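Following up on my earlier thread - several people asked me to post the actual chain instead of describing it. Fair enough. Here it is, all 378 residues.
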Amino acid sequence: MNPSVIREILKVTEKPGIISFAGGLPSARTFPVEAFAAACETVLRTDGPAALQYASSEGLPALREWIAGQLPWDVSPDQVLITTGSQQGLDLVAKVLIDQDSTVLVETPTYLGALQAFTPMEPAIVGVQSDAEGIDVDDLAKKAPGARFLYVLPNFQNPTGRTMSEARRQALVDTARRIGLPIVEDNPYGDLWFDQPPPKPLTARNPEGGIYLGSFSKVLAPGLRLGYVVAPKAIMPKLLQAKQAADLHSPSFNQRMVAEVLKDGFLDRHVPTIRALYKHQCEVMLDALTHEMAGLDVQWNSPDGGMFLWARLPAGLNAIELLPNAVDKGLAFVPGAAFFASDPDPRALRLSFVTASEEQIRIGIKALADTIREAVKG
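Reply from S.P.:
Thanks for posting it. Predicted structure:
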């Protein structure tokens, strides 16, 4: 097991005066504190003893039913397992599907937390070539023989912010079905679209050929530590056994609070406010990049949702080496190398635009530009 590069960087951001584009933290301004205060009172008053007691490993039936009913394909609540954050879902999938030296395929780059979850099982993690539309299906077909599964984040990916196109999704699902490759689809950011929702999930196109992971962290609050796994019925018993061995069950009190908050269509009213905030934050960062990076050979993308954008430094620069100089100027970011299964791009970096204020974004991007100019001059 290896330490999280991001968690180590977050320690730096605790220093006074540091503007952080590093953490993948939702904006605390989006947390529905009042709704949870009311739900807490209701749960303790009406169902207190059960909320504070041990519970079933599968999760609260009402919450599993709600999740099944929200998904855009036919799902039974029996196929839903509540997890302690979607990160635990990755851990359970790894324990059930990975053996030592087996092959696991991932996007290039991919979510660092998935690499951390998979690595203790000692697989061979193989990166599949990817572009702005997502996975390169031809490269996938070459590398797929013998692989246990492909792990993919189609929507507003962490770290790049890219979204897999409709054509690429269908080609990926068709190829995976043809060669018998399971897909583990991670979708924590799918509801955070700016102007229009992303194409339908991969799992909806082939439900028996994939495992789907979701989370309440980005639409409600990460401190609840609640996520879920949706899987074919044949694999659920093994995932449940792994869950029981890990922590018996996710917090029953938290599950009841979430079910109470969700029961009256709360997300339909709440999530649009998150989208509007994040869209504005993203636009501010893109505008600042355009203004401050003038004359520098810096590249970046323009995401359609989510929390991140992906940037690339001028030739010859290294994001890891640049970071201490940026911190000296009051800015933290995440070097992109940590997100690669192999052959990392030393020039890449991830910028999160959701937690900093508008003023902090402009100040931080200027600090980044100043740091890059100094490095280019040598």
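The chain has a mean pLDDT of 96. That should answer part of your original question.
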